[in-house]
Batch of 3 targets.
Target 1
Amino acid sequence: MRKSVVLLAFLLLAACAKQTPPQGRWEGGYAGSGVMVAARVEIGPDGMVKLMAPDITNADAAKPNQMQEMRARLSADLATNWDGVQPRPFDFDGTIFRKPGGVAPQMVWDKNSNQMTLEIYIGANPALPVPLRPVDNFHDSPWPAG
């Protein structure tokens, strides 16, 4: 009986232990419903997160050549301003990243695929999930080729 109580206490403490965020880089883009987002995320060995996600809203009436120009502008914004992004802490439970003490998910990590999903909040709308793919190095454009 005593061994089972000690084991149970150990398991409860282990379950409550702070989870270590994954290290790496992720990037991706989203275009739909009049919104365009380009995003980069980098998590360092200290667990600090660099995140940048410039967006354009009200793009639903854009013509194909305008959409391409908007993608290029967002990509250039990422490349030009990335070095100025300051790392910041997030609470991480093993899957979900939240602002410290916050409730709303900011990012969701799938350990099996190493895919990160950035949750973008624009106005009073529900979160917009932006899927990001893992990359060794950031690219000139965050959108997948093809």
Target 2
Amino acid sequence: MNDMMKSMLADSHNKSISSKRVVTLISFTLCCVGFIANLFFKFTVDPNMFNSMMYIVIAGLGFTASEKFASPPNPPPQQ
């Protein structure tokens, strides 16, 4: 499970944990919690707060998806 989470959050270029992916995952989790709380427990979430978290998720997923289409960085020249 731990390896699966690391590979899911890893950057595609250098295989380190990407902060964009971590922030997107946290924002998505908070949107899910707010949606479920509103749906089942009648807890109202401020619409501006929910929309801002949703925009963070959309932007994070867009930037992460755009990394797949970018060319890989050039390695430094050998001396």
Target 3
Amino acid sequence: MISLNEVIAEELKDSEFRVFYEEEQIKNQIAKLIVELRQKEGLTQEELAKAAHTTQPVIARLEKGSDKRTPSLTLLNKIAHSLGRELCLDFPVLKTAK
């Protein structure tokens, strides 16, 4: 029997798969962060959408993490500001880099 982690580890050796996998991981991190921050601020999806000048379905798709589209930096920045935050990006050194 082979574990899911072993399958993923093997698939990550393929650079095309790795890029797709990492993009999905980032979308999931964004989804989790938006949900956590919105709830911390006591906002509904509708209230956050209004503050970010977007719609509730857009916020719902982002929070679900299953949208095939990658959210734009403009949208993420609007959401961040609506939550009293600043959008920050980081490019940490890869764990596998030498």
